DNA sequence: GAAAGTTGAAATAAAGATAATTACAACTTT
DNA sequence: AAAGTTGTAATTATCTTTATTTCAACTTTC
């Protein structure tokens, strides 16, 4: 079980938009080349990031741009934007517990609060880093190569 | 994307073993009946819990028993036992980032530490509740019905 | 305004992961 | 010996994720 690669892909994409944005038009083809991800999938991710107000793209002209300052975009914003986790939550229950069984009909409620707390802990951690840090670290690594 | 239901299933199973253990032989069939999960899958989960030293089962005789005190089993122990998350970690990277691209060949390293921290936050939260609490809450809910 | 290049989006296919099912040998108890 | 159970392997089904194909709508440039 893994959180879908769309999340890390989105971070990769945003880093590229910032780092290459000055030098070239960062099209879905360019991003596909850097990430190894199919260009249509890249466009889907960009679409979700656009809906979330994180990037700007336009039909025809080509080239994505950040819609916010790097330090105003957290990893959590990206994670939310690409829908890593739906409304059901990160944890999954089996659909058919037996309502005849006293444990079966209560276990969900007993667990819910605790699982939400665990998910919140993960998400809070993601809120604590911004793209600014990620890009700064990436630039540093590139310089040190 | 969701953490596989084997985790919540395992918690359900363990709660049943404790709550019904006094009254009946808790076989994989009984557990299948309460959870709605196929009996073979239940046996697989029990096998993983046994390997982790959480339950005891024996061929032939039938009926699972807890191998530890309820307050010595945390949700994290169960989560680990059933292999919700493999060695690759909770977050998933696309396999083929372009090594020619300076971002492509560095982004993984940049993100790793932060993603591990997020995963650790989730796991620490799971460490903070024991089966004793889950079972106590379940019994309370049953009594209040 | 035509050509070239791009985005947005839908539909379909491929690949991978999760859960269910079938089948049966090994084991315990009665 | 019979009945019931576990452990395990093999297969199938279902669902999710990712890739691919296709094309209309849009911008820019010539």
Secondary structure blueprint with pairings:
Two copies of one chain form a homodimer.
Chain A: H1 6-20, H2 28-35, H3 39-51, E1 55-56, E2 65-66, H4 75-81, H5 107-127, H6 131-144
Chain A binds a DNA duplex (30 and 30 nucleotides) through residues 1, 4-6, 25, 27-29, 37-38, 40-41, 43-44, 46-47, 57-63, 94.
Describe what you observe in this structure.
The structure is a homodimer of 145-residue chains. Chain A has 145 residues and is mainly alpha-helical. Chain A is built from 6 helices and 2 strands. In chain A, strands 1-2 form a two-stranded antiparallel sheet. In chain A, strand 1 and strand 2 form a beta hairpin. In chain A, helix 1 packs across helix 6 and helix 4 packs across helix 5. The longest helix of chain A is centred in the last third of the chain and has 21 residues. The two termini of chain A are 33 Å apart. At the A-B interface, helix 1, helix 2, helix 5 and helix 6 of A face helix 1, helix 2, helix 5 and helix 6 of B. The structure holds a DNA duplex (30 and 30 nucleotides).
Question: Could you list some keywords that capture this structure?
Answer:
homodimer, mainly alpha, two-stranded antiparallel sheet, 6 helices, 2 strands, elongated, DNA-binding
């Amino acid at each position: 079980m893994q959180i879908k690669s769309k999340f890390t892909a989105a971070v990769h994409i945003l880093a590229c938009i910032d780092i290459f944005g000055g030098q070239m038009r960062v099209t879905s083809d360019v991003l596909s080349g850097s990430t190894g991800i199919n260009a249509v999938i890249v466009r889907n991710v960009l679409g979700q990031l656009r809906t979330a107000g994180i990037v700007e793209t336009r039909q025809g002209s080509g080239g994505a741009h950040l819609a916010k300052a790097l330090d105003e975009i957290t990893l959590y914003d990206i994670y939310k934007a690409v829908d890593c986790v739906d409304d059901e939550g990160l944890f999954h229950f089996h659909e058919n517990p037996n309502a005849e069984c006293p444990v079966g009909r209560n276990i969900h409620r007993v667990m819910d609060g605790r699982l939400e707390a665990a998910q919140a802990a993960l998400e809070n951690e993601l809120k604590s880093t911004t793209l600014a840090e990620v890009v700064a670290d990436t630039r540093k690594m590139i310089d040190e190569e």
